Write a sequence for this structure.
């Protein structure tokens, strides 16, 4: 029988990265995301205004609302709108540094990008979540209008206001996040196991290796095991 603890730890790290939308970066990238797919990489003729676009990746899923004319509205953590009014600079592709600082300070923006910038070469699922909401699906034009009205700076929360909350509100009228639900269940499962103290240390060290030595990675590595130990 497989040991459930390492498996749970791996899942926790995956969900932590998933909720902050961190993009895996190649070695030597200097913290900048790789270039997106070239214009025309995606056939946008199959997308309709108001469609919910979903990009599954190895460590996370990102969501957006298609507005037509190769434009996608999506919520991204981003520190820059809170400290700068330079719209030209803000509209540039969000780097991991901007993204992580946005998560820490709980600032974000609902921005409009091309399909290529939104998907970053990933495969795109269209209206894949409709089956979960059945009769709650709003009209396509209503979904697009809701997204357009929300474009701009917004508060951000890993658990209560992420990109999935944004799209489900626009298309289904209810802001929910199944990723958040799965994340919370995983945390509860790990906390119940005394061995999670050791596991959390390993997860913290892994995050430092992946994301670098910084307060956002070092402090959780110290405090999370302490609180788990106290809870045990």
């Amino acid at each position: 029988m497989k040991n459930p603890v390492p498996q749970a730890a791996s899942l926790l790290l995956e969900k932590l990265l998933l909720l902050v939308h961190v993009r895996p970066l190649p070695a030597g990238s200097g913290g900048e995301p790789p270039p997106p797919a070239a214009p025309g990489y995606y056939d946008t003729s199959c997308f309709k205004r108001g469609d919910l676009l979903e990009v599954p990746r190895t460590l996370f899923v990102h969501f957006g609302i298609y507005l037509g004319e190769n434009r996608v509205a999506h919520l991204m953590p981003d520190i820059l709108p809170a400290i700068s009014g330079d719209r030209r600079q803000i509209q540039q592709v969000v780097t991991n540094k901007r993204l992580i600082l946005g998560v820490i300070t709980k600032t974000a923006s609902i921005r409009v990008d091309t399909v290529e910038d939104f998907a970053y070469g990933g495969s795109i699922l269209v209206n894949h979540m409709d089956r979960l909401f059945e009769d709650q699906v709003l009209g396509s034009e209503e979904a697009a209008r809701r997204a357009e009205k929300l474009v701009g700076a917004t508060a951000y929360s890993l658990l209560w206001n992420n990109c999935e909350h944004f799209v489900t509100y626009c298309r289904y009228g209810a802001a929910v996040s199944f990723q958040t639900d799965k994340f919370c269940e995983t945390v509860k499962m790990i906390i119940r196991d005394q061995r999670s103290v050791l596991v959390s240390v390993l997860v913290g060290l892994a995050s430092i290796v992946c994301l670098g030595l910084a307060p956002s990675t070092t402090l959780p590595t110290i405090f999370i095991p302490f609180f788990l130990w106290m809870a045990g």
